[in-house]
Amino acid sequence: MGVSRREAETVARGDLSAHRSAHRSAQSSERMSTRPAQPRISVVVPALNEARNLREVLPALPPVHEVVLVDGGSVDGTVETARELLPGVVTVAQLRRGKGNALAAGFAKVTGDVVVMLDADGSADPAEIPRFVAALVDGADFAKGTRFRPGGGSEDITPVRRLGNRFLHTWMNVSFRTRFTDLCYGYNAFWADLVPLLDLPDHELVTPAGTPMLWGDGFEIETLLTCRVAAAGLAVTEVPSVERARIHGETNLRTFRDGFRVLHTLRTEKARLARDRRLDRELLD
Ligand SMILES: Nc1nc2c(ncn2[C@@H]2O[C@H](COP(=O)(O)OP(=O)(O)OP(=O)(O)O)[C@@H](O)[C@H]2O)c(=O)[nH]1
Ligand SMILES: [Mg+2]
Q1: Is residue 194 part of a domain?
Q2: Is ligand 1 within 6 A of the CB of residue 121?
Q3: Torsion angle of C-alpha atoms 187, 251, 44, 100, degrees rounded to 10
């Protein structure tokens, strides 16, 4: 018996759809099956003139597989201090500027199973690392720190930053249909096998002096990660975390400039998601 062209197309579309979602879930179960119950932990530490803080942060780390410290051209002996405190530390010199570029360079270097993002200024408590890792072992792809769930908190956030963060994570939740409680928080952990999927800007690209900071290279990095993880439909568990005040030194963050970069990132990532969906549809038509 013959099958009309329309029916044939519909079957093909259904097959392709089913094939794509089967492919996605096969990839996801393949990832799950290769993830160990006792993962090797790689801690990635972006640091810009944090020598004094590292003296308190590095000795407080639990035993881990490796610490990758990404230096942003510090002039206060950050790298030397890290090596003195932790002779096995892996140090990386980033090629552009910004925390985002530092993290991308660090992620590319890890050899462990799990990546933990830990600020060098003493604001992230190393004692919380096992809680982040436990969330991953329990099934999350991405363990996202939050200061705004019971058990979390901040000794550092200003009223303006709190308000801005609330506005931005509400924007995120509406755009991506998520329910995150904290967007701009730097303490997160994820399985290292996700690094290629995050598709971060090429950390090795060298830009001429005077070039504006590339998108993704600055403090918008946490937003970029959250958007990519949400767009990929990965499993995210929020982990309550207490942000402490930086111990010594000055912040590198400029509330309004960096808030604008976060907002711009939300808009471009939403556009990227829409474009990917359109391409998917075109492929299916
Ligand atoms: N390698 C590198 N690290 C950076 C750069 N900018 C910031 N960092 C590090 O990223 C972490 C977070 O930066 P902070 O300046 O503390 O920003 P913040 O946490 O938003 O602000 P605070 O309220 O001061 O804590 C710290 O460990 C910084 O040293 C950079 O351009 N390169
Ligand atoms: Mg800080």
Answers
A1: yes
A2: yes
A3: 90
Q: Which domain holds residue 150?
A: 38-284
Residue with tokens 């609330």: 166
Looking at residue 206, the DSSP 8-state letter turns out to be P
- Regarding the beta carbon of 48 and ligand 1, being less than 6 Å apart is answered yes
**Domain holding 164: CATH number?**
3.90.550.10
Write out the two tokens for 73.
């051209």
Q: Please tell me the pTM assigned to this model.
A: 0.90
Residue 268 · residue 215 · CB < 8 Å: yes
8 belongs to a structural domain: no
Cα(105)–Cα(47) distance, integer angstroms: 12
Q: How many domains does the chain have?
A: 1
Closest atom of ligand 1 to 102 CA is 1
User: Which uninterrupted H or E stretch holds 45?
Assistant: strand 41-47
Residue 205 lies in a domain: yes
The pLDDT averaged over each successive group of 10 residues in the chain (285 residues) is: 35 41 65 90 98 98 98 98 98 97 98 98 98 98 97 93 91 95 96 97 92 93 97 97 96 87 96 91 84
